[in-house]
């Protein structure tokens, strides 16, 4: 009887959810079936949240008072290899994420790019584009557009049926993102819109730009809603009205938190400013989207970077906690409860109960042991007259080793043009120095050696493609050449080291002999009787990557501020578990503990 009743409820729910709606744009309002609606949206990104927690995070947003979820879709997450799309495995099932939103009575704002920024690697663009030496992005370059149109066509197949006009929750689709901060090619924006329309998108579109005249003029398309990043005053909305007087405007990104780079302190913006801005939006019945209500995690090599000069480089940390109302582990913060009270006050809706929290655990000290070094796991090299980038070999980040013999000059001023992003220099196997991209100081003093044919090794780590503004063409590895006292060094052996979980698991299988050169694998095992979310503390290590049961948790770096890396319970198991740490600088193993919180 219970099963029959549950089946009936499911049938009723599916019937209700299939109801078709008309979402439209008037001069001043968003209209749902002809009536004004205020969108109170919370943004989250399915790629940054373990699939098992999608529903929990959406329920948390609903309990705070939101009626809409905004979601970036990351093109490069779904087309890692050119022409091969994945919209089904793991966190990639976008259609399922949208269906869960609908099941939780939430509308959806779809933000598919093709460029999104989001502090995500290359702003969501696929790095395979960078194999073309003269590629131009976010414009009518034929190679870029062919790839972008292929992406839109494939993604549209997943989401067309989920538009509100077809009984789904998608109300609007964003075209590009903050384009007025990058370029001014209206033909490009129009081509994207036309591709979406041809692919079956019938709901309205919107653009999102900073509330300044030049950004809106360059980035907005007539006939689309005007998104403001952010809009928090009458002056901001007046700029939107001047940009397109016939379209409604909303705050497409209201910031409750902010991003954090390595070397910085945790970014924790003033809550009073947020309260003032949200109160203005609620009081004036303006629609808005909280960017982000929940950030999640830059697992693996998905974190991006910023650069506002040719020699600047600011990589993002692994956590995307963002000081958001819902923290990285899915827990509400004081900011959450402030916004919940404020939204309830102005909408008149009662405060809802929170979903059950996800359990967290601590793990006592895990003994780690040295397994091998990267030098014992080198593949066959590729021979090249000059260094080539990772993208030239179809590799996205990880490591690449460049090796040559010194002929002519054998000591002096070695300069790498340019190291993207962190390099270790060795001479005849002896570690000499590190070179970090940021700041433009790319010179190392090579000492004299007794060897008649000294061997130079440069081990380079890629740390995230730049995701914003004018320096986004950002290839990894050695991007031009290497000189010694001004002489260009030729004839290189190049070793590809992708550092994906498969490569790392194979490398750390067994001790292949001690090698005291930097770049070591350490492994440990631990037993669990119960699983739960946890944070592995890497404060005893230096710089590298962490893998748990075959999952790349992301990068660790002792420059801070992040020292603990988030691991969801779904990546752990009862019984025996494995952790592998690759460290570029550490030469001895240290125990690792895990905690319930990031600090």
Describe the protein's architecture and organization.
- By secondary structure, the chain is of the alpha+beta class.
- It folds into three domains: 346 residues, TIM Barrel (Alpha-Beta Barrel); 105 residues, Jelly Rolls (Sandwich), CATH 2.60.120; 105 residues, Sandwich (Jelly Rolls), CATH 2.60.120.
- 21% of the residues lie in helices and 27% in strands.
- It has an eight-stranded parallel β-barrel, surrounded by five helices. It has a six-stranded antiparallel β-sheet with strand order 16-25-17-22-19-20, with no helix packed on it.
- β23 and β24 form a beta hairpin.
- α9 packs parallel to α10.
Task: Please supply descriptive tags for the structure shown above.
599 residues; alpha+beta; TIM Barrel; Jelly Rolls; 3 domains; 6-stranded antiparallel beta sheet; globular; disordered N terminus
**CATH class category of the largest domain:** Alpha Beta
Number of strands: 32
Structural class given helices, strands, pairing? alpha+beta
Neighbour order of strands in the largest sheet: 4-5-6-7-8-9-10-11
**CATH H-level name of the largest domain... which superfamily?**
Glycosidases
Provide the domain count.
3
The gyration radius over C-alpha positions equals: 25 Å
| Averaged pLDDT | 95
Strand content: 25-35%
The number of distinct helices, counting runs of at least 4 residues, comes to 11
CATH topology description of the largest domain: TIM Barrel
Report how far the terminal alpha carbons are from each other: 49 Å
Helical content, roughly? Answer: 10-25%
Instruction: Give the name of the CATH architecture of the largest domain.
Output: Alpha-Beta Barrel
Shape: globular
Biggest sheet features: 8 strands, parallel, barrel
Poorly predicted runs are 1-16
């Amino acid at each position: 009887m219970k099963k029959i009743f549950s089946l009936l409820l499911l049938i009723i729910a599916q019937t209700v959810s299939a109801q078709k709606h008309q979402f439209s744009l008037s001069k001043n309002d968003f209209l749902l079936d002809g009536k004004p609606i205020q969108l109170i949206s919370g943004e989250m990104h399915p790629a940054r949240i373990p699939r098992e927690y999608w529903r929990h995070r959406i329920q948390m947003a609903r309990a705070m008072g939101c009626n809409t979820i905004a979601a970036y879709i990351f093109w490069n997450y779904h087309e890692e290899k050119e022409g091969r799309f994945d919209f089904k495995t793991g966190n990639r099932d976008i259609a399922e994420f949208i269906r869960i939103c609908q099941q939780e009575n939430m509308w959806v704002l779809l933000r598919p790019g093709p460029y999104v920024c989001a502090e995500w690697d290359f702003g969501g663009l696929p790095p395979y584009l960078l194999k073309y030496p003269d590629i131009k992005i976010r414009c009518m370059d034929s190679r870029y557009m062919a790839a972008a149109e292929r992406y839109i066509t494939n993604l549209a197949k997943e989401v067309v049926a989920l538009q509100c006009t077809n009984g789904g929750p998608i109300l609007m689709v964003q075209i590009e993102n903050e384009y007025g901060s990058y370029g001014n090619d209206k033909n490009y924006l129009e081509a994207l819109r036309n591709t979406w329309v041809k692919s079956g998108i019938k709901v309205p579109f919107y653009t999102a730009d900073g509330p300044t005249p030049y950004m809106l003029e360059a980035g907005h398309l007539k006939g689309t809603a005007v998104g403001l990043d952010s809009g928090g005053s009458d002056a901001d909305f007046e700029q939107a009205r001047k940009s397109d007087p016939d379209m409604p405007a909303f705050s497409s990104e209201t910031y409750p938190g902010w991003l954090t780079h390595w070397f910085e302190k945790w970014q924790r913006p003033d809550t009073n400013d947020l309260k003032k801005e949200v109160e203005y939006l609620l009081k004036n019945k303006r629609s808005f989207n909280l960017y982000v209500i929940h950030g999640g995690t830059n697992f693996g090599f998905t974190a991006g970077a910023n650069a506002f000069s040719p020699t600047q480089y600011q990589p993002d940390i692994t956590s995307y906690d963002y000081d958001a109302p819902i923290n990285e582990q899915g827990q509400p913060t004081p900011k959450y409860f402030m916004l919940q009270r404020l939204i309830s006050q102005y909408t008149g809706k009662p405060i809802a109960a929170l979903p059950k929290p996800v359990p967290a655990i601590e793990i006592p000290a895990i003994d780690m042991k040295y397994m091998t070094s990267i030098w014992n796991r080198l593949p066959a090299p590729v021979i090249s007259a000059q260094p080539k980038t990772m993208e030239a070999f179809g590799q996205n980040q990880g490591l690449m080793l460049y090796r040559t013999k010194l002929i002519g000059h054998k000591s002096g001023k070695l300069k790498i043009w340019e190291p993207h992003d962190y390099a270790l220099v060795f001479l005849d196997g002896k570690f000499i120095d590190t070179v970090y991209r940021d700041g433009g100081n790319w010179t190392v003093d090579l000492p004299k050696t007794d060897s008649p044919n000294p061997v130079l090794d440069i081990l380079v780590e890629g740390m995230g493609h730049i995701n914003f503004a004018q320096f986004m063409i950002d290839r990894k590895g050695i991007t031009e050449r290497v000189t010694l006292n001004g002489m260009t060094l030729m004839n290189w052996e190049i070793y590809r080291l992708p550092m994906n979980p498969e490569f790392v698991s194979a490398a750390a299988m067994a001790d292949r002999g001690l090698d005291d050169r930097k770049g070591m694998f350490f492994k440990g095992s631990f037993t669990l009787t119960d699983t739960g979310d946890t944070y592995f503390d890497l404060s005893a290590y230096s710089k590298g990557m962490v893998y748990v049961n075959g999952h790349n948790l992301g990068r660790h770096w002792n420059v801070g501020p992040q020292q603990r890396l988030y691991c969801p319970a779904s990546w752990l198991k009862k019984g025996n578990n494995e952790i592998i740490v690759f460290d570029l600088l550490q030469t001895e193993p240290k125990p690792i503990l895990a905690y319930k919180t990031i600090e």
